[in-house]
Design brief:
The complex is a heterodimer of chains A (372) and B (293). In chain A, the strands form four sheets. In chain A, strands 6-7-8-3-9-10 form a six-stranded mixed sheet, with helices on both faces. A six-stranded antiparallel sheet of chain A has the order 13-12-11-14-20-21. Chain A has helices at residues 41-49, 91-100, 110-123, 139-152, 169-186, 197-203, 221-226, 231-236, 326-329; strands at 3-12, 15-25, 30-34, 56-61, 64-65, 76-79, 157-161, 189-194, 206-211, 214-219, 241-247, 252-254, 257-259, 270-275, 280-281, 291-301, 304-311, 316-323, 337-342, 344-350, 362-365. Chain A contains nine helices and 21 strands. With 372 residues, chain A is α+β, with helices and mostly antiparallel strands. The longest helix of chain A has 18 residues, at 169-186. In chain A, a hairpin with a 2-residue loop joins strand 12 (252-254) and strand 13. Chain B has helices at residues 3-44, 49-57, 59-92, 98-110, 113-124, 131-136, 145-156, 158-171, 174-181, 186-215, 218-224, 234-243, 247-275, 287-291. In chain B, helix 9 (174-181) packs antiparallel against helix 10 and helix 10 (186-215) runs antiparallel to helix 13 (247-275). Helix content of chain B is 79%, strand content 0%. Classes of the chains: A alpha+beta (372), B mainly alpha (293). At the A-B interface, strand 6 and helix 4 of A face helix 9 and helix 10 of B.
């Protein structure tokens, strides 16, 4: 393990920023810390950088106590949210900073520093910009300078705090891909913090979803998306329809739609169900249980159409996504009444107090998936 | 009537108001600032250049100049160090009593200088709290140079800190944190990142601090004892000469102080013009522009 975090707690005045956080990070891994603001992800990053310390818990890096190592000896590169470039130094001086502050014994020679800075400028595609000051650069260029500055000290671990937060949408997507390629080339352990689930799912090898100082789930983007471990992960990642199912004669049901073979053996009487918009069938044959839903509006968003449906039997608005080209194939128009049923769902049973029991999660799949 | 003509029609009274306001401001400036300043030089050179020079090279005048410089040379650097440390504490740390510290830094602005001088007499004077002890050990503070330095330091305490606090607050500590993560030691961080970012505001604060230190009258007057050639600074020398009807002498020394004020003003204006965005009092710092977000 490159980095082994266990039992980290950090309390600030009035709130628990980290609440028993344990996490293993493999060498060369690209890990995303994903969560809403205040979930503790930045605190965790700052602790790794040596800018903050946990109240208790431990962090081992290749078997050594990471927390006892001073920030300057941790071999860490960090890209700050607002880049924190030294405004009074040129791009070249910014990138060379980490090398120039070294004690003279380990400091590379002037020509070597210059050569390394030139290599980094090429790598981040900023040749010819070396003499500029940060104020003379665009947001995307500043971000790449910050990255080059962090890489100049040849770190073992690269930390990125909301690396794309301050950029506009187009630059963001381009830089995202570029960062992923760079990671594959350098094989550097990279940990980045984001509140943008799309960014986390697209970039990372593994995603740690955080909420209220706790890690809710750690897993590959596919697992996080398809097998969310908690109701929070369901609701935070992607769009989701939420409703309650209750046990009746033939199993659990909600407004005429029935689920068989619940694994709970009668221990629970109700459960909360999550269904993704793309997991709804829109033309269910009348032989199968389904909801009667009225199509209220079609929102076209390029290749995807978002359908705003209303299920009368549940008095619930739900959203279904279909490919835009399927709209005419299915003859969909606002005002239509459709037979709608989930293709799959993630369910958490509710205990007597109405609290979801995460350990009893049930991922339900329709038996004979009929194409929509 | 078309819109253009209408604008022109209301433009006249507006311009009149413009001119009247500017004229009023000019009259005030001339009467209350330029005239008195000019009077200083007119009076100083009233009997020609020779008496002016003679008044300045008198031993008492020279010793007053020396003492004023000495007090400033001690008080200003000490307040520079204190100002940077206080601004650092106020903007980089969260601690109990932070608001109190802020209020204490501002205290000399709100207390009359005479009162602050009296406080030192009460503490260190012959009848003061520490008076007997100081007397036993042969240490003289009141009616001596240490008292002058203490009183001056008290009065000029807020200048540097007040210049730095808003700027350091706006700049935040991200650059300093970046320096630490990149391997800089605390000293390297301070001299390579913090200091360059605050240098012009610091110089500006030092300048104001120095002008006040050299020009301070009230607090210094209380602790000085007015011993000619020993404990009179330039402002005190001016007063004493004036009370002795030595107008040329008084205004000659006053003209030196006025020159110092003009020089300070010139450098201050230059700083504001050249580095205005790094001096918070002159222009509010736009953090968004700085971060480019």
């Amino acid at each position: 393990m490159a980095l082994e975090l266990s039992g980290l707690y950090r309390r600030f005045a009035g709130f628990q920023a980290l609440d028993n956080v344990s996490l293993s990070i493999a060498p060369g891994e690209f890990l995303a810390l994903l969560g809403p603001s205040g979930s503790g992800k930045t605190t965790l990053l700052r602790i790794l950088a040596g800018l903050d310390y946990p109240d208790s818990g431990s962090a081992l890096h290749q078997g050594e106590d990471f927390l006892a190592t001073p920030a300057r000896e941790r071999r860490i590169g960090m890209v700050f949210q607002h880049y924190a470039l030294f405004r009074h130094l040129t791009v070249i001086e910014n990138i060379a900073f980490g090398l120039r502050v070294r004690p003279w014994r380990s400091r590379p020679s002037r020509t070597e520093i210059r050569a390394r800075v030139d290599r980094l400028l090429r790598r981040v595609q900023l040749e010819g910009m070396g003499a500029r000051y940060p104020a003379q650069l665009s947001g995307g260029q500043r971000q790449r300078v910050a990255l080059a500055r962090a890489l100049a000290v040849e770190p073992d671990i690269l930390l990125l705090d909301e690396p794309f937060g301050a950029l506009d949408a187009q630059v963001r997507v381009t830089l995202r891909r570029w960062l992923r390629e760079l990671h594959e080339e350098l094989e550097l352990t990279t940990i980045f913090v984001t509140h943008d689930q799309e960014e986390a799912l697209e970039l990372a090898d593994r995603v740690a979803v955080m909420n209220n100082g706790r890690i809710e789930q750690v897993g590959s983007p596919e697992v996080i998306y398809q097998q969310p471990a908690t109701p929070f992960v369901c609701e935070f990642i992607g769009k989701v329809n939420k409703f309650t199912v209750r046990s009746g004669g033939e199993g659990f049901s909600a407004g005429g739609w029935v689920l068989e073979d619940a694994p709970w053996h009668g221990r629970f009487t109700s459960a909360v169900a999550y269904v993704r918009p793309e997991q709804l069938r829109l033309a269910v044959p009348s032989s199968l249980p389904a909801w009667e839903a009225r199509l209220r509006h079609i929102y076209l968003a390029g290749g995807v159409a978002h359908l705003d449906l209303h299920v009368a039997s549940l008095d619930l608005a739900i959203e279904a996504d279909v490919a835009t080209e399927d709209l005419s194939r299915l003859g969909l128009q606002a005002g239509n009444v459709l037979r709608v049923a989930p293709r799959s769902a993630v369910l958490f049973p509710l205990d007597a107090q109405g609290t979801p029991v995460n350990a009893e999660r049930w991922i339900w799949q329709a038996r004979s998936p009929v194409p929509a | 009537m078309n819109a253009h003509a209408r604008t022109r029609a209301i433009a006249w009274p507006r311009r009149l108001v413009h001119v009247a306001l500017i004229a009023l401001a000019l009259v005030f400036l001339v009467m209350f600032l330029v005239l008195p300043l000019a009077t200083v030089f007119v009076e100083a050179f009233d009997q020609g250049v020779k008496p002016y020079l003679a008044a300045i090279v008198q031993p008492e005048a020279l010793s007053a100049i020396r003492l004023t410089l000495l007090v400033a040379v001690i008080a200003v650097p000490l307040n520079l160090v204190f100002g940077v440390a206080a601004a650092w504490a106020m903007t980089r740390f969260a601690f109990r009593g932070k608001a109190l510290l802020g209020a204490i830094i501002d205290l000399p602005f709100s207390v009359s200088p005479v009162v602050s001088g009296l406080v030192y007499v009460l503490l260190f004077g012959a009848q003061g709290w520490f008076g007997p002890w100081l007397d036993q050990h042969g240490i003289k503070i009141i009616f001596a140079v240490p008292g002058l330095v203490l009183a001056t330091m008290f009065v000029t305490l807020p200048f540097v800190a007040r210049e730095l606090i808003p700027l350091m607050q706006a700049q935040g500590s991200e650059e300093e944190e970046a320096a630490r993560v990149l391997g800089a030691s605390a000293w390297q961080m301070f001299f390579r990142v913090t200091l360059p970012n605050i240098r012009w505001a610091l110089l500006y604060g030092v300048l104001l601090c120095n002008a006040r230190a050299m020009g301070e009258f009230g607090a210094v007057s209380v602790v000085s004892g007015h011993i000619r050639g020993l404990t009179t600074t330039m402002p005190l020398e001016v007063e004493m000469r004036y009370n002795e009807y030595d107008y040329v002498g008084a205004f000659a020394v006053a003209s030196l102080l006025a020159l110092l004020a003009l020089l300070t003003l010139a450098v201050k204006t230059l700083l504001e013009w050249r580095y205005g965005d790094e001096i918070p009092r002159t222009r509010p710092v736009d953090t968004r522009k700085r971060h480019g977000t």
